[in-house]
């Protein structure tokens, strides 16, 4: 699949059909996360692939979102920012969040390419999930991805924000590109 198509066709899916994905396909999506940029080359991400249905139910409760329980697999993404904070102090915490976002977008685009579906879940009671999955205290949960095949392909896509609303030139708020300077001949 072309990159442009993967980017533009990604969307959040919360209703899955009964077909169980091949877990090896999900591993390939996680593998793509390794190629994201990492500050100073310090890799801080961990991925937990959960297929235990009881655990998935518990995770759904911790997210207070029922659709999570109906996924065949859940991927829990964590950061262990220690190496970054050792190297960069407080700024390391910011880098950990930033590179988690980059890695998770790689993962999402591979999910699209594989024909799988998911929804980024950012709301959860972190301490409960940490307990359930034995995640150590030095790790923080970044996001949770329930995974399956989409129940029914959406016919319409949510409208995306207009490019004019997010793009400035040379300074914040400037919505036009300056005309090219006249060259002296
Ligand atoms: C940081 C973050 C947190 C999110 N948390 C949730 C969530 O807890 N539950 C949920 O249903 N969707 C969640 N979403 C998905 C967004 O609601 C969704 O991406 C948005 O509505 C745009 O739709 P699209 O993904 O189909 O383009 C989250 C997305 C992001 C990036």
Structural overview:
There is one protein chain. The protein is built from 6 helices and 4 strands; from the N terminus they run H-H-E-H-E-H-H-E-H-E. The chain has helices spanning 3-9, 23-32, 53-63, 82-88, 90-113, 126-132; strands at residues 45-50, 73-79, 117-118, 140-148. It has a 4-stranded antiparallel beta sheet with strand order 1-2-4-3. It is globular and about 75 Å long. The termini are far apart. It binds flavin mononucleotide. Residues 11-12, 65, 119-123, 158 line the site of flavin mononucleotide.
Which terms would index this structure?
binds flavin mononucleotide, 13% strand, alpha+beta
Overall morphology: globular
Following the backbone from N to C, one meets helices and strands in this order, namely HHEHEHHEHE
Q: Which spans of ≥5 residues are poorly predicted at pLDDT below 50?
A: none
Instruction: Sketch the major β-sheet.
Output: 4 strands, antiparallel
Provide the spatial order of strands within the biggest beta sheet.
1-2-4-3
Molecules bound to protein: flavin mononucleotide
Q: Approximately how much helix is present in the residues?
A: 25-40%
Strand content: 5-15%
Number of DSSP-assigned strands: 4
Q: Rounded to an integer, what's the Rg over CA atoms?
A: 20 Å
**Count of helix runs:** 6
Q: What structural category arises from helix and sheet content?
A: alpha+beta
Terminal Cα span:
48 Å
Mean pLDDT: 96
């Amino acid at each position: 699949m072309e990159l442009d198509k993967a980017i533009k066709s990604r969307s959040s899916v919360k209703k899955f059909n009964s077909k169980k994905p091949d877990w090896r396909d999900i591993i390939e999506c996680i593998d793509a996360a390794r190629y994201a940029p990492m500050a100073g080359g310090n890799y801080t991400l961990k991925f937990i692939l959960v297929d235990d249905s009881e655990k998935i139910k518990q995770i759904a409760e911790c997210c207070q979102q029922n659709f999570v329980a109906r996924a065949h697999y859940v991927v829990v993404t964590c950061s262990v920012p220690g190496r970054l904070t050792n190297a960069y102090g407080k700024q390391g915490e910011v880098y950990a969040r930033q590179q988690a976002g980059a890695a998770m977008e790689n993962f999402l685009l591979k999910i699209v390419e594989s024909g799988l579906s998911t929804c980024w879940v950012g709301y959860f009671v972190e301490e409960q999930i940490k307990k359930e999955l034995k995640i150590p205290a030095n790790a923080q949960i970044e996001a949770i991805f329930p995974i399956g095949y989409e129940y029914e392909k959406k016919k319409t896509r949510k409208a995306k924000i207009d490019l004019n609303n997010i793009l400035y030139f040379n300074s914040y708020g400037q919505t036009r590109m300056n005309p090219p300077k006249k060259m002296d001949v």
